[in-house]
Amino acid sequence: MSLLTRIIGWAVLIFGLLYFFVPLGGLFEFSLRARRGVYSLDAYVRVLADPQFQATFSYSVFMALVTIVIGILIVVPTAFWVRLKMPWARPYVEFMTLLPLVIPAIVIVFGYIRLYNTSSWLPLTGSLTGTNALLAFGYTMLALPYMYRAVDTGLRTIDVATLTEAAQSLGAGWITILRRVILPNVVPAVLSGAFLTFAIVIGEFTLAALLDRPAFGPYLQRIGANKAYEPFALSVIAFGITWGCLALIQLVSRFSKMAPPRI
Amino acid sequence: MSLLTRIIGWAVLIFGLLYFFVPLGGLFEFSLRARRGVYSLDAYVRVLADPQFQATFSYSVFMALVTIVIGILIVVPTAFWVRLKMPWARPYVEFMTLLPLVIPAIVIVFGYIRLYNTSSWLPLTGSLTGTNALLAFGYTMLALPYMYRAVDTGLRTIDVATLTEAAQSLGAGWITILRRVILPNVVPAVLSGAFLTFAIVIGEFTLAALLDRPAFGPYLQRIGANKAYEPFALSVIAFGITWGCLALIQLVSRFSKMAPPRI
Amino acid sequence: MSFLALENLQKSFGAVQVVKDFNMSIEKGEFVSFLGPSGCGKTTILRMIAGFETPSGGTISINGKDQSRLKTSQRNIGMVFQAYALFPNMNVFDNVAFGLKVAGTPKTQIEARVKEMLALIRLEHLADRYPYQLSGGQQQRVALARALAPKPQLLLLDEPLSALDAKIRISLREEIRQIQRQLGITTVFVTHDQEEALSISDRIVVMNAGHADQIGSPSEIYNHPATRFVASFVGTLNMIDAVVADPAAQTVRIGDQLIALRESVGNRKPSDPITLALRPEAASLSEHGDATLRGEVISASFLGSVVRTKIAVGGSTVSFDMFNSPDLRMPAPGEDINLHFSSGDLLIVRD
Amino acid sequence: MSFLALENLQKSFGAVQVVKDFNMSIEKGEFVSFLGPSGCGKTTILRMIAGFETPSGGTISINGKDQSRLKTSQRNIGMVFQAYALFPNMNVFDNVAFGLKVAGTPKTQIEARVKEMLALIRLEHLADRYPYQLSGGQQQRVALARALAPKPQLLLLDEPLSALDAKIRISLREEIRQIQRQLGITTVFVTHDQEEALSISDRIVVMNAGHADQIGSPSEIYNHPATRFVASFVGTLNMIDAVVADPAAQTVRIGDQLIALRESVGNRKPSDPITLALRPEAASLSEHGDATLRGEVISASFLGSVVRTKIAVGGSTVSFDMFNSPDLRMPAPGEDINLHFSSGDLLIVRD
User: Fold this and answer.
1) Mean pLDDT per 10-residue run, chain A (263 residues)?
2) Which of the residues B56, B191, C134, C275 has an alpha carbon 20 to 30 A from that of A14?
3) Backbone torsion region of residue C231, taken as left when φ is above 0, otherwise alpha when ψ lies between -120 and 50, otherwise beta
4) What domain range includes position C298?
5) In this complex, do C324 and D222 lie within 8 Å of one another by their Cβ atoms?
6) Is the dihedral of CA C13, C16, C22, C26 positive or negative?
7) pLDDT of B103 strictly over 80
């Protein structure tokens, strides 16, 4: 039975690896074939030299950072307060953070367009800044579930209520408690939420395309429709970025595991 | 302070509601304006009567069901086995289930197209059935994180190891254990994963568009580009469906809460 | 005037009244334990004193000063929690220093005070350790040092020992008591463990469903329980069904055996039922005392230092304890034996 | 021939050897407890008997039949787990019936047997309840009935009481013992609670770091511990530092007091250090026994039924216990008192 266990175990792992990595392998192999007959990095060179690539990629990175900041500002205080003072509200908040997963992005975008079009009370879509802001809020919404879960999981590893009360009994006010006690203990969780957000925003297509912003996702798709090898090189690059983010999450969470085990 | 707590609490809730529901409200209001001057359901009537709507919608429902079946077949045994016999593999499996969140769907699709094109060893994209299968596998990948987490959470609420050992000591084999002991206790979790999958597949745009399949997502976008009121009606319908799924999840999880509390 | 005064203290959560009109005065330097089962309101009282809960009614005053308008952070109390309340991101030194830093104490003073506190709990050598590197007992000692560092006027202990192993629990409670005596700090201790409360306290408050059933010294509580609840919650107690034989002679009948009580049976009449209580350690097989009960041994179990024997006497089961010794002969089931005790140990149970 | 035979049993997890060459024979109908701290290997042995772990070496045979090739489901054993092992989706009846259903027993027989089992644990009236509607004690009784329903040849109990409240723990252990006697089923019980093991067992195995330090009856284990580990793990023990005075006369010196031992000091020479052990309940203030130690009272704590006094005797601290009684005068700290005991109670500690 121990042998069977091991065989099934490896089968599951191998199946998982194949499921994800065989497509990626094919992708990578093809992306090297830009020069006839030999493997080369020609496609990568061309992609990286493309000013449009640079423009869209830096635009997406910038939007990702903005999204992360908005997300942290919304999520950390909410999650702390919900854990501490409103445990009754947890199911509602969790329900709300589920919404972006199941409300199609298209629906959100149509709502935004309708609400903030040029003839509305707040004509956001009328200006570039406005549209960018709309996009950032849309991204925040997409990233909310992951950010919230990451931070909430981080808070779960410490006994928020007891630590807060201990700090209060020692004379600390709210700001001291947040700054000296709560935040230092959830930094890894916040970071892992941030990396996840980053990866999601970099690869996002629907929102950016429908709001017609020069982001990396639509660029990827445009290239894919018009070039032979470059889209594959781009995909590999995009994958590399997300992979890097994931590796960072793992690193951070390993680091945080070396920190105090709690409860 | 109790008052402050309450005020902040309500502010958070109201902010959340506004964040999600104001766009939806705008959407809904506009979708009723198809007849000049009065509110009417004209847009809905036209949408529902559109044979394309019916075709794409039933296609997506069908694909969602296929995805759910594949997902359950992959996820339930894997999650059970990992919990029971391979706790060391949990981080790897969880890492794998994170991948679909951060690998952009476009990357996956390009990989599929490259790997299974008409000149490859398995020319899936050469036939309709093959492309549909590809799409279903792509959907499964998208839904994997949610399905896995739902089932894993379900398994966490029971003491899998002890229950399995108890059943073994009473003479039960693996099939009896799975059928009589494990499954009956994770049905709610499996259902909630299934509803989430359903909602995701119904609203998905990128995969279906890039593989050029007649799904509901691309139809929604096409209508959006060409009609005035119908896209908003469609959005409301899409939202209604996802909302229904969410409500079902809540119902199921409430039902499961009335069942035995464990650990 | 008392140091800590709780007057008409009440607390309701929704429709549930958890603390009902509680009154108590605690002297400076006293060690008072709140003892009771979970849900009896003992923790709620502690949390109201700390300022974590707002009383629904009544006042709390410390040293004559009403506390109701003060936040927790303004009350100058030290508190030790059940477990895991050390700040995980700080080492032992920084944990102990936290309260002083918050108060803006100069650095050199902080250092001196923290060293003093660590010496008090004999953990000077662990100042650089993080909480996860400490055992449970060490963590609670650090928590105690942290609570005491800012020189609080009142020390509150919320079941600080209940997460620890049995042996550490005993040594730490002795240490807590010794430190408390040394500093002379007024202390309120909450526990559900009767042995803990009995061994550590100047006075014990036995809580039952939101009010104090009895307030008194450990031996008063144990030897003269005021209510049936106190009697059964504190220690083990035999309940013996009897009927009154002769009210004037204060005799009762247990089965067919006549026993004379030392207290009056009150206004009970002959043949009235009466319930008597007897502690297992009050009775023994050796001849002593003025009362005897004969019964048949049901079982004798060896519990280590003590052998507990159960005998059947007129429909009731009576347990009694003997200290173990290597040459002790265990009573055999079925055997008839005489149980000797002092009639003064036989209490009449009031409900 | 013994019923359950464990021969040269070994188990390693990676490089860690958890069970080291364990040998034991258990007779039919015996109740044997494995007692030890966590990590001593007691649970691993139980799990190997059940078939949940495969031994790294050695054999397990039940009734003469080697079990190594049998899966758990083929061994016909009943097992009760620490907690929460009832099937949450089945009611009490179905839980108890599970083993019989799996075995394909006819329906009418199942019904009769389940009723019989529920009568045994006195829960007939709860047959329709689900596990979450039961208290912890009731759940464990149902788990016991479920384990016994298929008439197993061996009953394995893996700390079945440790998740329960103190009072329920005591009543349930008496019930388990009584049912075990009634059915005459061979039982292996794993616990870390010495009082539990002492009160329930025919024989106790005291485990320490993978091997058995001592196997014996409860009173052997308690009164004649074979090793220092057994002595300190089972019960509370005073360790007293002394020096040999005259090996021939078997006298030792504790501080400046001379005591004659009943056992030989072995090949120790005069002035050699020697460690003696004395159980707290063996000594008392009243005159008895042939040995006396004089010391100064350090503290006296009231623990309920028992008063524990610590005295300082020649550099060692000696605790002794007295049963409480209302007229007991507690020794005051600083007072000099005489402690009486029998010299036979003074054991020489071997390491």
Assistant:
1) 60 66 70 77 82 87 90 84 79 71 66 68 72 85 82 83 92 87 83 80 80 82 72 74 69 54 36
2) B191
3) alpha
4) 238-243+274-348
5) yes
6) negative
7) no
Question: Residues D197, D333: one domain?
Answer: no
Q: Residue B256 has what pLDDT?
A: 53
Q: Encode pLDDT of D200-210 as tens digits.
A: 999 999 999 88
Chain C residue numbers with beta carbons less than 8 Å from the beta carbon of D174 are 299, 301
Query: Which among B23, B103, B250 has the least Cβ separation from residue A115?
Result: B23
Contacts of D216 in chain C (CB under 8 A): none
Q: What is the 3-state secondary structure (H, E, C) of D29-79?
A: CCEEEEECCCCCCHHHHHHHHHCCCCCCEEEEEECCEECCCCCHHHCCEEE
Could A12 and B98 be called an inter-chain contact, meaning their C-beta atoms sit closer than 8 Å?
no
Residues of A in Cβ contact (< 8 Å) with C98? 167, 170, 172, 180
Chain B CB within 8 Å of residue D85 CB:
yes
Q: D147 in a domain, yes or no?
A: yes
Judged by DSSP in three states, A19 sits in helix
Asked if the Cβ–Cβ distance from B169 to D150 is below 8 Å, we say: no
Q: Does D84 touch chain B (CB under 8 A)?
A: yes
D267 within a domain of the structure (yes/no): no
| Res A75: pLDDT | 85
**Between chains, do B165 and D77 touch, taking CB under 8 Å as contact?**
no
* pLDDT-derived band at C87, boundaries 50, 70, 90: very high
Q: What gap in Å lies between CA C160 and CA C149, rounded to an integer?
A: 17
pLDDT at A225: 66
| ipTM computed for the complex | 0.69
Contact C264, C250 (CB under 8 A): yes
Distance from CA of A121 to the nearest CA of B (A): 12
Query: Are D227 and D278 found together in one domain?
Result: no
Same domain, C13 and C88: yes
What burial letters (b/e) apply to B122-139, b meaning 16+ CB within 10 Å?
Answer: eebbeeeeebbebbbbbb
Our CA angle for D224, D230, D235, nearest 5°, is 80
**Strand, helix or coil for residue C338:** strand
Asked if the structure places residue D148 within a domain, the reply is yes
Chains in touch with D (3+ beta-carbon pairs under 8 Å) read: B, C
Say if residues C266 and C244 touch (Cβ distance below 8 Å).
no
Domains of chain A with CATH codes: 50-258 (1.10.3720.10)
- Res. B263 pLDDT band, cuts 50 70 90: very low
Contact B163 D87 (CB under 8 A): yes
Counted residue by residue, chain A has a size of 263
Tell the residue number behind the tokens 């036995």, with chain if given.
C206
- B173:D81 CB<8 A: no
Q: Does residue D223 sit in the same domain as residue D289? A: no
pLDDT at position B9: 62
Residue that finishes a domain, picked among C199, C232, C265: C232
Tell me the chain C residues in contact with residue D345 when contact means C-beta distances shorter than 8 Å. Answer: 325-326
- Partner residue opposite A169 with nearest CB, options C72, C84, C130: C72
Q: Which of B205, B232, B245 minimises the CB distance to A114?
A: B232
Q: For residue C314, with 0-12 CB atoms within 10 Å meaning exposed, 13-18 middle and 19 or more buried, which class applies?
A: middle
Considering the domain architecture, whether residues C295 and C170 belong to the same structural domain is answered as no
Q: How far apart, in Å, do the first and last CA atoms of chain B sit?
A: 35
- In this predicted structure, the answer to whether residue C65 has a pLDDT above a threshold of 60 is yes
d(CA C300, CA C335): 11
Size of interface A-C (CB pairs under 8 A): 79
Q: Which 306-325 residues of chain C touch chain D by CB within 8 A?
A: 306, 308, 321, 323-325
The shortest C-alpha distance from D93 to chain C (Å) reads 32
Would you mind telling me the total number of residues written for chain B in this entry?
Answer: 263
Residue environment code for A207-246, b if the CB has 16+ CB neighbours within 10 A, otherwise e: bbbbbebebbbbbbbebbeebebbbbbbbbbbbebbbebb
